[in-house]
Each structure stands twice: as structure tokens, then as C-alpha cells.
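Record 1 of the preview.
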Amino acid sequence: MSSGPSRWIRRPEQLDILLLADTTTLGKRRQLGDLLRSRILSFCLIVLIVTRLAPGTTFAQTPNTWQTRAGYGAPETTPTAEQLFITGETALRNGDLNRAEQNFWRVLAIDPHSAGAYANLGVVYMRRKQWDQALRMLGKADRLAPAVVGIRLNIGLVYYRQNDFRSAIAPFESVLRDAPNSTQARYLLGLCYFFNERWTEAVEILLPLWGEQSLNMNYLYVLGIAAHKAARTEVDERALSRLAEIGQDTPEFHLLMGKAHLNNTEDDKALAEFALAAKGDSKLPFLHFNMGLAYLDKQDYEQAAQEFRQDIAVEPDVAFSYDKLGTVDALEEKDAEAEINFHQALRLDPHLVTSQLGLAKIYQKRGQNSEALSALDQVEKISPDNYTVHYLRGQVLQRMGQRQRAKAEFNTYTRMMNAARERRGRELSGDIPSPELTKEPE
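->
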């Protein structure tokens, strides 16, 4: 028996990688979006990579796999990489993430070129929402097995679930090129285009799903808005007509109609639709969130706060509810409560610009200049086109006596604000957050 290490390590070309669907639904929502956002039903494909031996091959035994203990006639076995992989895959299916993680790392100790082990470690970290670790593992898996589209789908999902819709576009596009019949990739790519205001591309990607999604009100909602923005009148009218046909008097339909009124600043009409939705289903996800937005716009802060708290009771892991509750607290000068809610929002969604800005304003008000500047740096990193950053930074620097730097920030603010207005004007829905639409399709 050879003692060379190559005998015991299977190379990538020896792997036959099988993709299995795990129907566990992961995280859901995020991001400020555009007009008429409501729930997109949730599904996802989480990829479990399972190695299968090529015909006629087996995992080799290492020289010390079989040992005879002193005083015993029966041998003791050390698990092979294949056995460890199967144990890890079973643990992952059963939700035992710690055991799965341990076994996949043990596989890599034997076979450092196991794309399946890296990919499944990526899934483990996705389920824990350890996004950086997930990306590292999935990146290694992708380099070892670039033909496996499921790995790239998960890479896209990692970005998507962090609200980084721009970064999610490339992996989803790649999946769709190699697997044009992938409903998941097509739907998610369409949403990413939508959230990045690439209206024409959103319509082109989403329209082929009409046959299987035309009973989905949320799909029709997004498609209709994208078509309207892209001046695709026929598609716009077709989608909204179908939406009215199937929506009828359902709570979901009234929520969508209320959202439409809300985006047109028709708060009373919005609240009337929300009341009809509540009559049918008072625990409809995001109903109280949108009611809170209407009351916030009407400056009824007490009622707005009550609605946001009710939404948190229904959906406790939605960052926007804490963000808006923090906004109400700040408006009522309850800075300590606002700070707590903004931090909670950022724990759930580190990319939420409005919460970082809220913290920056609180720190500025307290004279905590260093903390304010740090928060503003985070905003600029997440959203380089956000001109409010420069205005607030200018105020902080002015208070610190750095007048030249402050003047430069104010000038940048004015230039960026005017450019933004000239480029597209004010979108009616631009200030209305809609976490509902980021739910992944079923």
C-alpha cells in the first residue's frame, strides 16, 4: 500500500457533484425600494452539494484507517471523507449546523479540494447569517467547481439577503445564462433590476414568468410598476388588469391598493384600504408597518409608534419596523429610545442607511462628533450617492471648527443634490420603504 498522500486525496475531476433542493426558507426582506412594494412570496433553493463517486471508484483508506488495539482482535475504523461528508450532509438536512460544520471541516482536512464541503459550509454560514464566512466558503467552492450553477445562486442569495442587490446581479445573471429555465434566478434577478431602477431589464426578465406567476399578485404588482416606468404600456395595463381581476376583495389586494395610495401621499385613502385589509386579516405581514407609515406622514406619532410595535409583534425580524420606530422616537426627542431602535435595526440589516443617518443625527445633537463622523462614513460606504451625508458632515466639522473642510462638504452636498434633481427629479415613492417586496418567490 502506497504511503503517498495523492492516493488519499480525491481531485476535483473525480467529483460528480449532485445538487439537491433543501426547501428550508431562509431570511426574507430588506431595502428601501420603489413605488408599490408588497410581499413577494418566499421560496429559495439552498444548495446542498453531495459528492458521488465516479463509476468504479471508491474512497481510498488511509494507511492508519484500520488499527488493531492492544488486547483486542477487532479493528477500529477512522471515518473516511465520504462517511464524514454523508454525516455532515445529514446533519445539515436536520438543521444540526454545528455537527454539519464540524464534519465538513473534517472532510477538508482529508480532501482540501472538496468543492462540496466548501459549498455546504457556505450553506451552514448562510443559515447562521454569517454572510462574510458564507461568501468565503462559496467563493472557494465556485473556484473548484465553476460549472455548478447552484453555488453561484447561493452567492447571489448572500448578497441579496444583505440588501446588496447591485452585487447580487452578476451571480444571478451568470446562473440564468447557464440555466435559462431557473425560475429562482430569473425572479430574483428581476427583483434586483427592479430595486436598482433598471426598469426595462426588470420587465424583460420577469415577463417570461407570466405563465407560472400570473396568479401571484406581488409578481403582477412589480411587473406593472416596472412596465409603467419603462413606458411598456401594454404590459403595464395587462399586469394591473390581471391584478384587479384576481385580487378582488382579499386582504392582500387591499394592502396593495393602500400601498399605492400611500406612495401618492393619499394617506386617508391608504388608511381606508388598510382598514379593509385588517378586517380580513389583522395579522397580515407588513399591514401595521404601512399603517404606521401613513400615521407618520400625518404626524400622528403616537399612533404611528403603536402600529410599528404591532408590526414588530407579527414580524420581529424586520429591520424597517425598528428603523421607523426609532424615527418616531427621534421626532419626539426620545433620543435614548431612538438610539436603541436604530441599533436594533442595524443588527438586523447593517446596510440600512436611514438608521445610520438617525444615529449620526443623535450623536451630532449630543456633541459626540467622532461617533457622528464614524456613522456618516458608514453611510457613505454603503450609499456613495447619498448627499445628505455631506450636509451632516459639514455641520459636524463646522462645530469642530474645521471651517474649510465644512465648506467643502456643503459644496459637495449642493452639487450632488442639484445633479440628482436634474437627473431624475423627485420620485413620489422615494422615501417609502417597502421590505415586503424583497421576499423571495415561491
